[in-house]
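Figure 6 in text form: structure in, sequence out.
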């Protein structure tokens, strides 16, 4: 039997993809910059 692979967790979602998580890495900061330039309403979760 194949189980569902997506088991949502609020804590993990924020820790991996949240705004503060983005600020902790150079790549994340660049990503936020790109999204600001594009005019995204939401920069991250």
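Output sequence:
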């Amino acid at each position: 039997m194949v189980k569902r692979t997506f088991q949502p967790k609020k804590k993990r979602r924020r820790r991996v993809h949240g705004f503060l998580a983005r600020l902790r890495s150079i790549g994340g900061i660049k990503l936020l910059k790109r999204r600001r330039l594009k005019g995204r309403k939401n920069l991250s979760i």
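Caption detail: Helices lie at 10-17, 19-23, 26-38.
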